[in-house]
Amino acid sequence: MANGAMALLINSRSQNWLPERWKARFEAVCGDRPVVLLPDARLDPTEVHYAAVWKPLPGELAAFKNLRAIFNLGAGVDALMADRRLPDVPLVRIAVPDLTSRMTEYVVLHVLMHHRQELYLRQSQRDKIWEPRYQWPASAVTVGIMGLGTLGADAAKVLARFDFRVVGWSRSARTLSGVECFHGAAQMTAFLHKSNILVCLLPLTDDTRGILNRDVFAKLDRMSPLGAPVLINAGRGGLQKEDDILACLDDGTLGAASLDVFVQEPPAKDSRFWTHSNVVLTPHNAADTDADEISKYIAAQITRFEAGGTLENVVDRARGY
Ligand code: NDP
Ligand code: OXD
């Protein structure tokens, strides 16, 4: 093949993905580069130069000896980082305005849901009770965002525009207008002490696994009109200690939680996350990836790369994100 092929590997167990639609979108933007949806027994693996993947099986990419780059069809690369046989070529993650806006919608929706007492109001409606509680201004509540990367920084900016007080926490020092920024382990407690609603948009790495635990929840500020703090996690399930979340909801350390991600997805049918009155559960769709936007993003990266330019949003494998 003159133009090395693009292999599309989408784990068919992933819900909400239509592999044929992705193939059609890639074909529309890849010019004369063949786009092959795997598995395809006719494909010679040595002809593949690029792979666009979502949760391939561990070791599956090792078959492609002439790969030049791997494009993850999502922002989080934890599943790929766990593959010990991942080819040593640039690994690119998704960072596009479309995905960022979707995540910001999710964060704003859930912050407002808790701030505007929607859990109480919906229950009141079901019980036919007309008992409004005082509605405090956004400026009385501090939203703490863990992870000030592509997604966290945008959510922080939009929440600040709503007049929430916004604080953020990252690995390295960041500066964001309207956001009080903290970084590193040494500043984590100071960050937590200020946060009433804790939003987690961290990647899952060796450093962040299990970071959402009782010790962290106990340090959140309880002095806002919300009373008990609220957790919103749209990062990854592996970031959270799920028994701690349930126990903290039960004993009032946490007032409520919005969870989009879980250690096991979907959670077991008998998991209390399905039925807990203070949990808002969504099925890992805070920010879906859009085939149109992402195929264009990847095709543009390949064109630039083949013209001698650099790939953008390449994962730093030592950091794990
Ligand atoms: P980025 O890589 O742009 O940002 C990651 C942020 O986390 C950075 O600010 C980084 O710090 C910070 N961080 C990483 N490790 C640590 C640490 N040990 N301590 C403190 N801060 C840390 O990622 P994105 O914003 O694009 O995405 C974040 C995550 O969101 C993804 O990894 C994915 O898991 C999840 N996601 C979930 C989706 C869903 O639908 N639920 C959809 C899309 C993404 P620094 O700035 O110093 O590098
Ligand atoms: C992602 C996701 O990482 O969908 O993009 O979770």
Task: Characterize the structure shown.
The chain is α/β, with parallel strands linked by helices and 321 residues long. Helices cover 29% and strands 17% of the residues. The protein contains nine helices and twelve strands. Strands 8-7-6-9-10-11-12 form a seven-stranded parallel sheet, with helices on both faces. A five-stranded parallel sheet has the order 2-1-3-4-5, covered by helices on one side. Helix 1 crosses helix 9. The structure holds NADPH dihydro-nicotinamide-adenine-dinucleotide phosphate and oxalic acid (OXD).
Q: Judging from the principal axes of the Cα atoms, what is the shape?
A: elongated
Q: What oligomeric state do these chains adopt?
A: single chain
Q: Could you report the average pLDDT, rounded to the nearest whole number? A: 96
Biggest sheet strand order reads: 8-7-6-9-10-11-12
- Proportion of residues in extended strands: 15-25%
The low-pLDDT segments are none
Q: Which compounds are bound in this model?
A: NADPH dihydro-nicotinamide-adenine-dinucleotide phosphate, oxalic acid
Q: Please work out how many helical segments DSSP would assign.
A: 9
Structural class: alpha/beta
- What is the number of beta strands? 12
CATH superfamily of the largest domain: NAD(P)-binding Rossmann-like Domain
Helix % is 25-40%
Largest sheet: 7 strands, parallel
C-alpha-based Rg, rounded? 21 Å
